[in-house]
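Lecture notes, unit on binding sites. The following record was shown on slide 14. It pairs a sequence with tryptophan.
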Amino acid sequence: MASNEDVFVIKAKANGVQVIGLTRGSDTRFLHTEKLDKGEVMIGQFTEHTSLVKVRGKATIQTSHGTMESNDEGE
Ligand code: TRP
């Protein structure tokens, strides 16, 4: 069972931000892609099935490691 520290928050700062979950285990592949529009927030966890999350697009991402920004320019 994931602890609260595994919770992360993603807030989209543009339309069409993609949150992509990748599978846990020896076979790493895309599991699920969620699209967020500007202002939408997703609260997620790492799970038995998901060990990696990729964010594509402009967003604010909060994790137990801090808050960071992703953007379109790759900064
Ligand atoms: N069905 C997925 C799972 O339980 C849902 C999920 C959990 C997910 N965390 C995610 C999807 C992060 C995308 C990103 O693992």
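Take-home: The chain has no helices and seven strands.
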